[in-house]
Amino acid sequence: MSRRLLLSLIVLAVVCVSAIVLISIALTPSSGQMNVSVSDDMMQMSEEFYQSIDNITDDITASMQAAAKELSPLTPDDPKAQAILRNLFNEYPNSAGIAWVSADNTVISVPIYSMGSVLTSSEFQNITEQSFAGQDVILTDPVMSNVYGMVVCFVVPVYTADGSYNGYLCFAHMPIILLNETPDTPYYKDTLYELWIVNSNGTIIYHPDTSTIGKNYYTSHYYQEHSKISDIRPFIENSEGTLKYLSYSLRSSDVVEKVGIWNTLSFGGQDLRLVLVDYPYKATDVTFPENVNIKEVTDVTQALFIYAKKYGKEATLVAMSDPSGPFSNTETEIFAISTDGVVLSMPTERGLMGGNQINYQDAYGIRQVATMINRVNQGGGYVHYYSKLPYAGNETIFGLAYVIPVDETWFVGSQKSLLNHTVSFDPEVRSKLVRAVQPVQEYVSVYGKEQTLATLNDPSGDLIYPDVRFAAVSYEGELLADIFNSDLIGIDMFSVVDPHGTSTFRDFVLIAKQGGGFEYVESRNAEDGLFTISLMYVEPVDDEWFIAGSIKLDSHPIPS
Description:
It contains 11 helices and 25 strands. The chain is an alpha+beta fold. The strands form 5 sheets. Strands 2-12-13-14-9-10 form a 6-stranded antiparallel sheet. The protein starts with a helix and ends with a strand.
């Protein structure tokens, strides 16, 4: 081979390699800067964050091990076993449920049915006695709950009195349980440091943008296709450090420079990267409508639907994003979402495009997109939401969305604030509702169904809880108890609809059959004409009836 030919081949190889590198750079996120300086305060908060997570995981584990010890002499059909699970559940009212899966795969859970969808996850298919070799607790990756979205599960073994393995206890929690210091915000204590947790395999365990929980950095196209943001592999692949990187501002399309510090907590078979992030932020600029008219929300969605049916999916998505297109002058936020939760178009939140939002939760933990999908599966309709404003404490936008399915794969919708001001939300309402329903469940176990219903229908009975309204309903829709609607006892409530024509009692039955959960309910007060929005918590008693508790959130006038 001549020297000239050899030189030509070398040059060609260098050019090809350079081209590959350039293509790779163009298709992957940019690299961040490792080992940057952070403030002393940030370092201190990072250490405190570590200690806080360590304490809460140890606390939950200790409570579960105590319960497992109490279960030791029992069998799953023993009523005492159910009481033990209920007592443990009562300690953590924001949990999603607890189950004992015995060695012969007999399952009992509190609330009843709550763990059905969770336990079908692959995370539990191969749990045996050997799974606990060298560790006394397992922490799962996030798994899907039909009602609560992504949950993390603590799992401890149960042994019989003679020391034989008898299955395991599984305690499911919303991931925010790990951030017990600040359950109502994404920030640590009184600082504006953002918190998130990712394991060493790249799976997001907790993030203030709840739609990202359960996603894996290495496999999620959302991270791979957003070239404006930085590569965050240093967080995943190093046990500690600092990193300056580019990422989206919380629930925003703005890309900002962030600085993160992290360390690692080894717990439950996982190496958890505990990330504390700081970045300059700006308060969300909100434009409120001068005149609230829910007809506009309906009209815009119907126009989107007609356009989609006439011109097809691709043309509709292009038109929705066109700044001079047919939908550019609407005063509502428009969107198109697939029926599995992927955002197809959302012009006001372009950073969410292509991401799956099915696990996104509003201020009260309601999964807004999942609720939309449920409504779409019934032909379409209205969905309320309390959208948290980043960097604004407990302030939210209270709004209404209207959705219509285009076909079985996607739907269109629009949404708008129902008020011309923000609304503060109370982070204690959810746990207050759960705590109120728990004594009713205990009353049923002691006195039975009939006496419980009689007591619920007694205005001076023992089951009165401040600010909480109770109802008992059969799965056939019959109202069994409600002291505020005693004239409706025995009536089929499926025909009762809210001001928007939604049969809320059908929704309650669906939620109860899935294991229980939360939903917004709107009603109209005949005396003052105001509309009242309430948060409802539904919990099944058995396979025949359920209990529901509600707390009023806000009242407001709404023009037709």
